[in-house]
Amino acid sequence: MIALSPRQSMSCPLDLAGVLKNSVQATLLAIIKKNRHTRYFSESPVFADFHSALRKFGRGNDADISDDTFLQTYRTTIPLTTYDSYEPFANKFLGDTCQEDDVRDMFSPGLPRFIAVTSSTSKPKPKFYCRYQIPNPLRHVSGDVGPTFWTFSLHYRQLVKVQNRNGDIISTIPAGLGSSAGVRMAHGLEVENDHLNIKLAGDWATSPVAVGFIRDYRTFMLTHTLFALARSEVETICILFVTSAVDMVRYMEEEWDTLITSIETGELPPWEGIQHVREYLQPHFPPRQDRAAQLRVIGKATEQPGWLGEIWPKLKTTISICSGVFSVAVPKLQFYLGPNVQLHSLGFGTSEAQIATAYDPSDLNLFKMTPREVIEYLDVAKEENASSIVPPWLVEVGKHYEIVCTTHDGLWRYRLGDVVEIAGFDPTNGTPITRYFERRNIITWMAGGILTERHVTAAILAVQDTLAPIAEFTAFIDSRSGVPTLVYLIEVHGELHPEAPKAPTRLHNELCRLNEEFDPQRMRIPTIRVLRPGTFGEYRQWKIEMNGSGAGQAKVPVLMWDNAAREWMLARVHKELGLDSNDGVVQG
């Protein structure tokens, strides 16, 4: 990455800016010409100005219109878009069977290979995105990295069957996890062949393919762990989210004796949710008495740093998504890994698109934006419209921008809601290097000021020295008393600090420091509710069961708006720090 001295421009150097501009414009032209005749782009009224402008230059034939005209028309007529314009067209795919004439060329030419479904972390219902070309963000996991403990999932929410005019099914499209689609694409696991896929050994991971069909979250994690534990030579661990990696360690500790006995005898445990795949797993799980003996000697050393390194002495690298809200779990996982195992970032991907790759894998929040799609930058300090968009060759180091993407899969200046900070530029082609900053517009008004996810996160992390190391957290606004109160739900690593009762007051002061608009007199001192150990892992399982989603779709929001989820969490509180109705400190 180019390091800028105080005398250098905070924008992309001129020699690289030209290279980057040419590359981005070539990608944009390819997308425009590829997708301009699709159903969504042709029929949605939000793009009417683009089509009206082009009709002045030609008769609808691309050959009649110059490349410069396409680019200029895009810049001046394409507005910012959201799911509101996309949803009516995506909904045409959501029946179990749909007609080819109704869905072909909807967002991009042809039919999608997969429909990515969001986790509905911050919204009441999921969103559906048609993906026509599925990149594999996990491509660096396979290859020459040695035996890999990879918690891949092959789950899908539903299968969409596309029928032609003769009534024949011409395509079966899975709808579910984007990461599942990446695994299927990388290893040729088409859904039509799942009756054969389920029998495969899956030599690209320690687990056979059948483990990917387990839906129960705890059993899914435990079964992947069981097959990995049976192999002492594991060199790489890949778990999608760092919070799930911490769940894995907890489950392994809880089931340690069962896991070792199973490895010794070659008999799979009777875990809930494993029955439908047991017959496919058993042939891949012979007895390993020597390995069981090794594990018994190691024992459950979860209170000592580096336990995972003892279990797998050849372990070199663990790869997970570690930025944003997930960063809170990084210290705990690093404790388990020990000093000799590197924790690397997986990258920056969303259901909508692959946004960036890890630039320096050891820097868990540093990303190189993808050149495959067109990424533009909406200046968060300006009005929220297309006139505030900044092209990648004009962004400035240190400034914050919301990501706006135009993609081969048919998104047009789509607002992702993710805000990044520009950290620099790649020295080979000028591509912006970014750090994840926060989600935009996940905010609420409280005590005379705006409360953002970043405020909520920074404040609780700032009081760890008084409270305890935070393993994971969420928060919500309690307005029942008439005065909004911020309530934190936390899991801690170890015991509470003796001065933990002072943490709510420190938290109050920290929130007011982070946003000077807050009126301390109007903001009640926050409540901190300490959850039973393992609650967030149980929440992920509960959420998956409630939504019928896959094992990678149970992210915990920073601010929780779902009342049912709040009540579920509150039922698992075992200690409270804050103020009662008499303004006294409440403990345990």
Question: Could you provide a short overview of the structure?
Answer:
By secondary structure, this protein is an alpha+beta fold.
* Distance N to C terminus: 50 Å
Q: Count of DSSP helices?
A: 19
Helix/strand/pairing category: alpha+beta
Radius of gyration: 25 Å
pLDDT below 50 for ≥5 consecutive residues: which ranges? 3-9, 581-588
Mean of residue pLDDT? 87
The helix content is 25-40%
The profile of the biggest β sheet is:
8 strands, antiparallel
Strand content: 15-25%
Strand segment tally? 24
The strands making up the biggest β-sheet line up spatially as 10-11-12-17-16-15-13-14
Shape: globular
Description:
There is one protein chain. With 588 residues, this protein is an alpha+beta fold. The strands form 5 sheets. The chain has an 8-stranded antiparallel β-sheet. Strands 1-5-6-2-3 form a 5-stranded mixed β-sheet. Strands 20-21-22-23-24 form a 5-stranded mixed β-sheet. Helix 10 (242-254) packs across helix 15 (330-337). The model is unreliable at 3-9 and 581-588 (pLDDT under 50).
Can you give keywords for this protein?
588 residues, eight-stranded antiparallel β-sheet, five-stranded mixed β-sheet, 19 helices, 24 strands, disordered N terminus, disordered C terminus
Write the layout of secondary structure elements.
Elements: H1 14-35, H2 39-43, H3 48-55, H4 67-77, H5 83-90, E1 97-99, H6 100-103, E2 114-117, E3 128-131, E4 148-150, E5 156-163, E6 169-176, H7 178-187, H8 194-197, H9 217-229, E7 236-241, H10 242-254, H11 256-265, H12 278-281, H13 289-298, H14 307-311, E8 317-321, H15 330-337, E9 342-345, E10 348-349, E11 354-358, E12 367-369, E13 374-379, E14 389-390, E15 400-406, E16 414-425, E17 432-439, E18 443-446, E19 449-452, H16 453-462, E20 470-478, E21 485-492, H17 503-514, E22 527-531, H18 535-547, H19 563-570, E23 573-579, E24 585-586
Parallel strand pairs: 1-5, 2-6, 4-7, 7-8, 8-9, 21-22
Antiparallel strand pairs: 2-3, 5-6, 10-11, 11-12, 12-17, 13-14, 13-15, 15-16, 16-17, 18-19, 20-21, 22-23, 23-24
